[in-house]
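Hi, here's the filled form for the chain we discussed.

Project: internal
Contact: R.S.
Residues: 142
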Amino acid sequence: MPTGVEANIFKALIDRLVSLTFTPAQPIAAPFVTFPPAGQTKPKDYLEVVFLPSPTRTRTVGPGRQQHRGIMQVNVHYSSGTGIIVPLQRADQIVAHFPKDLILYESGVKVKVNRKTYAIPLPPANGSLMVPVTIQYETFAA
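And the returned structure, exactly as it came back:
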């Protein structure tokens, strides 16, 4: 069980992502986790998670709950030469899995997806395509 608000926010979001089933399965590169595992080659197609919390804000006068906001970005990487449709379909699955107003809970922390999740493909570079999917969240915690 993570401690601290930011750790709980990340755990709630990453657990939700991991619960999404892709066919074929899609490896996930999580922040500060060796990817690929030692002895394996980097897959052509994978997801990369970037966690970007914003500064905490106090929304009340005096002691109270703090507003925690930020972004979890899931980069859909594709270099298998399948074209743009398959990576866009993967991105659309992630967008649908994190709808606006989705509520997630982790260790007493309530995390809300507070804006519509969106994907904007980047121009292909070096033989690969990346489609960043942006998930904006917020929570109020002590």
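Let me know if anything looks off before we file it.
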